[in-house]
Amino acid sequence: MARTTPQAGGRHERDPFLLCSFAVIVAIAVSGLLAPWISPYGAGGFEAQQILQTPSRTHLMGTDALGRDLLTRVLYGARVSMAVGIGTALIALVIGTAYGLISGFQGGNLDDFMMRIVDIFYGLPDMLIFILLSLLFGRNIGGLLVALGLVSWVRFARIARGQVLQAKKFLFVEGAKAIGASRRRIVLRHILPTIAGPLIVTLTFSIPAAILAESTLSFIGLGINDPYSAWGTSWGSLAQDGWRAMRTYPHMLFFPAAAIFLTILAFNTLGNGLRDRLDPRGK
Amino acid sequence: MLRFLFKRLFHGLAVIWVVATLTFILLRLAPGGPFDRERKLPPEVLANVEAKYHFNEPLFSQYLRYLTGVMHADLGPSYKYLDRRVNQIIAETFPTSALLGLLALVFALMLSFPAGLVAARFRNSWLDRFILLAATLGISVPHFILGALLVWLFALQLGWLQAGRWDNAASMILPAVTLGAAPAAYLAALLRSSLIEALGEDFIRTARAKGLREGAVLLQHALRNSLVPVLTVMGPLVAALVTGSFVVEYVFAIPGMGRFFITAVTDRDYPLIMGVTLVYTTLLVAANFLVDLLYLVVDPRIRVY
Fewer CB in 10 Å around end: N or C, chain B? Predict the structure, then answer.
């Protein structure tokens, strides 16, 4: 089957996007980590005289209905988004990869059964499962991580299984079997490294999906329900405040919305770039 | 071929059963109940309430009662709206959500097909680059942000359309565009790459060698062979429309099923949550079944089954 191959120049053309998106992600992550030190105001600072200020030199993004500096709140919000995005993706990576490796490597009836389960989860809308799970795990950052992780592992399971089925046929795997390597060793030392590329790509795409889910849930009022969290307030909750005040104070919506959009866009661009490099077979 | 369809149908029913069971278990495990109040109900009252909703029976017989109800298409009473049954609420709100989803789907298809075809036809031109960029932006923008910005621009700034209504055609434009934007972007990008792959095949060279115009090659030969990947994502696409409808109905204050689902979760109105979940699942199963049927139409090779 003829396959469209990227032209010679194609790879280098994408480099600026890849670098840019990576730089944006690092900047957002660092500003979240350093929020207590680089924020212009304290996290809990209420100023009665500074209510609903539009952006100005003293408050670059303006203030909210309680007189809190919006830039400070957006910086702290980066912690929530990054923690949820990366945490979820890692949980899903570990569960999903282990599941897919076992399923693909064992094959037979076990594989059939395990993939049936994956199929059921795969078809359902993430948000639906997630909302149902959040009833069980509660609406705090830990519960959110578990629920989101349980939703997104199926993608890794499918990819890992598919890759294992291909990798099982490679000669070096047969060679390892022939010299009597244990199954554990074959899977961990020979198969896992060869399938790492597609998994990293999936990981990169899982992070923005989790950030999107978290901010959406916070926006509709079903997200993290912990107003005094040391982590800061989710961008989704900030956007919800802004949505309510949009008629008169649109700045309250624009800045959190821009933060969410920029973060998701950066991860998606990074994912596209990585896919071109690491997983030429993927679409 | 019939066997294939029966197998898919059976699989779909199994999915509905698994979802019904899992939802039932999940909601029974969840802490806090629909009748928890700040002030505790007197024990006699609580006992009466529990008897009315059969909470005092063993869990398994509650489960059987629920499943029997589902099989008779009876989803039980709502805990929150005491005089109404879940069936009634869904019957009232489903048409609204279905209309919204349908409009969004039509918008997505009408935008993505021309965009994907143009991008593939003029590959690597500035037009192609622009469409790809727009698609990347469209995939990355969350529903609630797009919806809010559209309301801000078209309702508040320009005053062309009104927000927060759902009564005439004009009031449906913004919600449908909001819900359809991400699927449109995704489909356009998918169709483009699928077309480009098809254009590299041997039969395309044959078609060109026959002297067919490029437009005819694209529409009659490449497009039909690019439809299978597009069909494959129709199932997940319906799922995406369902998920998006929660948010869009919330943002635009549309009295649809998604909005009721969100309030049901806040109220812990378990029968309503389960009812809406089952309706969504059935919808997805039906969509996937339809996709299987369409495969047979589009790709004759699959008919061999």
Answer: N
- Classify burial at B14, counting beta carbons within 10 Å of its beta carbon; exposed 0-12, middle 13-18, buried 19 or more: middle
Residue pair A126/A152 in contact (Cβ under 8 Å)? The answer is yes
Contact list, A220 vs chain B (CB under 8 Å): 144, 246-247, 250, 262
Chain A nearest-CA distance from B61, in A, is 22
pLDDT in tens, A181-200: 787 888 788 888 888 888 88
Query: Which amino acid, residue B23?
Result: T
Q: Is A91 on the interface with B (CB under 8 A)?
A: no
Contact B145 A269 (CB under 8 A): no
With contacts defined as CB-CB under 8 Å, which chain B residues touch A253?
148, 152
Contact B137 A221 (CB under 8 A): no
Q: Does A44 touch chain B (CB under 8 A)?
A: no
Report if pTM > 0.80.
yes
For this complex, say whether ipTM is above 0.85: no
